[in-house]
Design goal:
With about 375 residues, the chain is an alpha+beta fold. The chain has nine helices and 20 strands. Helix 2 packs parallel to helix 4 and helix 4 packs parallel to helix 5.
Length: about 375
């Protein structure tokens, strides 16, 4: 068993630079947990503290109910695989896999048993005699993973391990990581800033920023129901359109007034804003680009902007246009003439996320 509990963890570097702030987390035995957040959000520092490579400034770290806050890395039964991990040069695949075990003086029978287990799961039994420079990118990652697993760790830490691999390799390795979690029953904590990886693995996820937990849920629920402005703006490809709008009353209706247009809100959302006394105030709005589409005749509310260009994102076409001092992305439907013109776009009020301007917390969820 390898459950993990972090309680009130803080990490402060010299110069009072606080990387982790009062961090509390419980990871169940055999769970696959994803840490996602922008560069320098603290996820790598957190992994290094779990592995014993960074001292914990304050707080406690428990593994299987035992306090490991100050324990030596060798005592934690934790394996780590980072983005810059490399195979030992001049050693065959088999030697790379067995080196640490031979140094630990395991018997040949024990080493052979582990070789058979790991090579079978990772499908690398046919390349044991190859040298690192002879390996494909996928096999290199598989051997690195196998080397980490040869010690039979209770917890596997992966820090942006495949960040520099091409998309096809990333897809294959994501499957390997999930398979290892299932086949070996190892607790896996994967830190990444790649949202595709987070969404594809489809398990419990922690969104981090500035050393803190911003939201915890499944990847899909976080995408569909962001709890605050940071999560809304960070999670999703392409990123959500964030803008400021004023909440206005028009008779019995509540509308959002932008710098260059308006959006009608459905009755339920409008009533919520009115009841919470947002009428006449500004709020942050969030709209997914795929929910912004070129307006058709007869749509009574539109946002108009100067076309700034177009771009391809993950195989889909989007239009960039100006709204006040900012930019919006809208899904292109094909056939639009984008040569230096204004265009009008439609957004359903059902698809608008609303955030308090002061607290930046979700209003409508």
């Amino acid at each position: 068993m390898s459950g993990l509990v972090l309680k009130n963890i803080n990490k402060t570097f010299p110069g009072d630079q606080q990387a982790i702030r009062d961090f509390n987390l419980e990871v169940k035995d055999r769970e696959f947990l994803i840490l996602v957040g922008p560069t320098a959000c603290g996820k790598s520092t957190l992994l290094r503290m779990i592995g014993g490579l960074e001292e914990i400034t304050s707080g406690s770290l428990m593994i299987d109910g035992t306090d490991m806050t100050d324990a030596d890395p060798k005592e934690r039964n934790v394996a780590m695989l980072f983005k810059n991990s490399v195979l030992y040069p001049g050693m065959s695949v088999e030697d790379n896999l067995t080196f640490a075990l031979r140094m630990a003086k395991l018997t040949p029978a024990e080493i052979e048993e582990r070789i058979e287990e790991i090579t079978g799961i990772l499908n690398i039994g046919e390349i044991l005699e190859k040298m690192p420079e002879e390996l494909s990118a996928v096999d290199t990652y598989r051997v690195l993973l196998g080397r980490a697993l040869m010690r039979r760790p209770g917890i596997l830490l992966l820090d942006r391990t495949i960040a520099e691999a091409d998309p096809a390799v990333q897809e294959l390795m994501r499957k390997e990581f999930a398979n290892i979690n299932r086949e070996l029953g190892i607790t896996v904590i994967y830190a990444t800033d790649n949202q595709k990886t987070a969404m594809a693995l489809g398990t419990r996820m922690i969104v981090m920023n500035e050393g803190e937990i911003c939201q915890e849920d499944s990847a899909q629920n976080i995408y569909d129901h962001p709890e605050n402005l940071f999560v809304a703006g960070f999670f999703g490809t392409p990123r959500m359109n964030i803008s400021i709008a004023k909440v206005m009353e028009e008779g019995e209706r509540i509308v959002l007034k932008f710098a260059s247009g308006m959006i009608d809100l459905p009755e339920e959302k409008g009533k919520l804003l009115k009841d919470r006394e947002y009428a006449g105030k500004e709020v942050f709005t969030g709209i997914r680009p795929e929910k912004v589409v070129p307006a058709k005749n007869g749509e009574n509310r539109e946002i108009t902007g100067d076309i700034l260009g177009s771009e391809e994102i993950d195989g889909a076409s989007y239009i960039r246009f100006g709204v006040g001092d900012g930019e919006f992305l809208a899904k292109a439907e094909g056939g639009e003439n984008l040569s230096g013109k204004k265009m009008s776009f439609h957004v359903s009020g059902e698809d608008v996320y609303l955030f308090d301007k002061e607290t930046e917390k979700i209003i409508t969820e």
